[in-house]
């Protein structure tokens, strides 16, 4: 996610955003108990967290007192056909050779009532155990259950029992899943998409319904990452993000109702089946997120690497200035295409044939696999010149396709690995295309805030958003700039490219990044690491 640094003339908005920074997420009603610090995700934790709205007791298929659903049930045996019509028995263990696809595959059939802002879904999950030990449960993270009255779990077929508490759904299997074996379960659930919030709540607008669009980011349940015999769910917190997402294959069929003229913005391969039905596939992705609107205007451009870049805007991107009209859509599409080309050259290939940028009616921006949002605010404030947030936020979200989508990290425990790298990549972009703006960028984006704090902090160590941004984003940028001076340009960019290639498709911690340095490079960067890191 992008955190922009608002300038002082925006006094009213800045007051809401704590000394000029963005609130990326709504503050919880109470500060949750902080998890014990873990220097690496590989260390894991038993059940580290639940959610903002934890239920004190589970009630069958009814919302808890806070509004987020809590459910506990014995699931009936199921042998009905799966959504794709196969004969596989839900809940039965199937053993044998597996291909090199991700361990988890999702097949979703969802009906979206655009007018009523509701979703009904059947969601088949196939999971293959590639570990050396058997396990008797699967755990899913249900992000929509963060919102009041947004998510209703109707059932889980193929499970012995299941229980939903907060954002964590635990599915007990009928028998332990042995190494080299797969199991399929099917969830059925409903959603009422929450309205776009005001103030701080608006920063979670990637899952919301507004006057002009529906955004469905992090709307589908994801299998939790399993590390050291534990399924990882991070505690919801007011600062940063708390997602830890493994890669999976996604096959999603959408049926739109009450949706005249609605256009679907979706990543990957998308087929219009007619009559309001769409079929999408996205391989090796950390999520499958979409946006819908009856006001979308679509523009496309092909990159020199053969990627089709699609921009979905809301028809209001032409702005009148003193020098005449300027078109923010044209600029955003050019910036997205150029940055995709540059970062492919520097960090390795972008993994899909399409890349989607969506104008979002919520602050800042947000990254997903193959699709990103850029706020309407930045289109409205585009002046026709590149020294502004429409350029920076577009570039920032594009490079998250490497520092999030390709190389995953623990957003709660090691947020610098995607956010500091993505923010510094803005500078890399300006060096290439607008070298006269690099000094401006350092002052405007970083030095004006005199950042302090340890770069490798977890999100749980901060008491304000300002502290979090200064340490993770801005001091992180300072650290990366100093590392580049320590190593030299060639070695620095080689380090970033090897990081992207070595850990493609994985979820890693800070040690993975530093382990790629030679002993000589580690010594050359020792003072920098001691200056910026709590654990150098």
The CATH topology label of the domain at 45-290 is Immunoglobulin-like
| Low-pLDDT runs | 5-67, 77-87
Beta-strand percentage?
A: 25-35%
What's the CATH H-level homologous superfamily of the domain at 45-290? tricorn interacting facor f3 domain
CATH architecture heading of the domain at 45-290: Sandwich
Number of helices: 12
The radius of gyration computed from the alpha-carbon positions, rounded to a whole number of angstroms, is 23 Å
Q: Name the helicity range.
A: 10-25%
Total E-strand runs: 29
Mean model confidence by pLDDT = 87
Structural class: alpha+beta
Q: N- to C-terminal separation? A: 26 Å
Shape: globular
Which sheet architecture does the biggest sheet show? 8 strands, mixed
CATH class of the domain at 45-290: Mainly Beta
Spell out the blueprint of helices and strands.
Layout: H1 11-16, E1 62-63, E2 69-74, E3 94-95, E4 104-113, E5 118-128, E6 135-141, E7 151-157, E8 159-165, E9 168-177, E10 181-192, E11 207-209, E12 214-216, E13 222-223, E14 225-227, E15 230-232, E16 248-257, E17 263-265, E18 269-274, E19 277-285, E20 290-293, E21 297-302, E22 308-313, E23 318-321, E24 324-327, H2 328-347, E25 354-360, E26 365-368, E27 371-375, H3 376-380, H4 389-399, H5 401-406, E28 408-409, H6 416-433, H7 438-446, H8 465-487, H9 489-502, E29 507-508, H10 510-514, H11 519-524, H12 526-532
Parallel strand pairs: 4-16, 22-25, 25-27, 28-29
Antiparallel strand pairs: 1-2, 2-8, 3-10, 4-5, 5-10, 6-9, 6-13, 7-10, 8-9, 11-12, 12-20, 14-15, 16-19, 17-20, 18-19, 21-22, 23-24, 26-27
Helix pairs in contact: 2-4, 4-6, 6-8, 8-9, 8-12
